[in-house]
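We both want to read discrete structure tokens more fluently, so let's practise on a single case. Would you write everything just below, so we can both look at the same thing?
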Amino acid sequence: MSTVAMNSTTIDNVINTIVISEQPLLTAKLSEALATTEYKIIFEGSTLQQLLSLKWSEEPQLIIAIMDTSDNQVLSKFKVINEQFPMPIVIFTHDDRDDAIEQAIEAGVSAYIVDGFREDRVQPILRTALLRFKQYQSMKTQLKDLKTSLADRKVIDRAKGLIMEQRQCTEDEAYRLLRSSAMNQNMRLAQLAQNILATANLLEPKKTL
């Protein structure tokens, strides 16, 4: 049965935590270990399916799962959850199969702990998972920015080539003209370059067979 629980202690920088567990005894130990910490348990349940249908009054920031085995179906649900609501996921399990560990990593699990549930280890594991998740998200953002930058550069280079051809000017002159126009129109350089290419494509005579 699903329950909503809250820590009684008021702590700054609260981390809203979801607990999914097939083992009531370990769930109770986990709740006790987190009772006076920043980890506020906002939901306890026994299956991941319960999470997919819930509407949250408080945004979850961490998932802790305690399970005997990590089968493909369970890990695929973790992947769906992580794609829709990216957050650190920590799994405590007895399943040490290589394919389970590999699938957990692919699902975005931040920490996969085999036979390692002890109350005194929980907080260091959670802190490590939170930091690892933060670093991973930062890397994703940097990679996305890099891809955007490379795509923008290609568009700008094409626009410069078009200006050089039409104005019979140098590359530096074409770039200065492009940059000046972007500033005057309060527009990103790449967006102006894209507009120039789109206009040129629109005005280009259609080829006849």
In short: The chain has two domains: 15-117, 148-203. Strands lie at 15-21, 39-45, 62-67, 89-93, 111-114. DSSP finds seven helices and five strands in the chain.
